[in-house]
Amino acid sequence: MKHYAIDQWADFTQGLLAEPEHTRLEAHLKGGCQECLLLWAFTTKLIATCTGLATDPVPESAVRLALAIFPVQVRLKRPKKLGSEPTSAKSRRSCKRASAKQMQGGEKLG
Question: For 22, phi and psi rounded to 5 degrees?
Fold first, then answer.
């Protein structure tokens, strides 16, 4: 007997499946597969719980604490040029060259 994955049962529970697949999963349940019946029951409870939680407002203090614990990092993506190096590698080489020139000229670093 073929068993279905938890994501398929979650989609079934939410009514997201196309008709042929929905009918297959429904027939499978009616066929008495205990393993899939347990998964279907679990996804039904899970979706009901998640739907209920989604409507509860989150206190602002909880949001502030979550952001303090898990800071959001914004990364700007720049298009890469073919054959170019990452900016940080270019910067390191520039600093090394500048330091070498200063040392050759007898200047102090700092």
Answer: -60, -45
